Amino acid sequence: MKIINITVLNGPNLNLLGLREPEIYGSTGLNEIEAKMNDLLIENNLEKKLTIDFFQSNREYELVDKIQDLMNKRNQWIIINPAAFTHTSVAIRDALLATKIPFIEVHLSNVHAREDFRKKSWFSDIAQGTITGLGANGYQFALEHIIENTQN
Ligand code: CA2
Questions:
Q1: Which of 20, 68, 75, 135 has the highest CB neighbour count under 10 A?
Q2: What is the DSSP letter of 20?
Q3: Which ligand 1 atom sits nearest the alpha carbon of residue 81?
Q4: In whole angstroms, what is the distance from residue 29 CA to residue 41 CA?
């Protein structure tokens, strides 16, 4: 049986979700987002076919290392909210390009409706798709896409 592994990567400050600035980022914490994603697998009886690993870091090199760890592994997907690194990180972009793992870029807030510097993403043009502005549900939608596109 082909097992799909999904790695959910979250960038700097997202460990503060639910604790600060709920008016921008919502009141759902990262733990709750992770629990809901696991629930979605269980509801779909997929817990033996899909696995999800979660990783949050405030350090760019740790995210690069985590992506490199997935290199040469088969049947991988990445869901990534690079947070502030969205607008700065050629290093994370290069790591994703090197692994060739399909990924979905998620943002809680609508980055296009905010400051100009947030409109530039180093990821959108190489992502399978992007979800922005739909809050914590964005992670669920990304997972639903993977579920629908990896069956058989
Ligand atoms: O909307 C998003 O998901 C962002 O990726 C969040 C980043 C921001 O730099 C991007 O432009 C858009 C910021 C993450 C900070 O997360 C916090 C969460 C709670 C309280 C404070 C910061």
A1: 135
A2: S
A3: 5
A4: 19
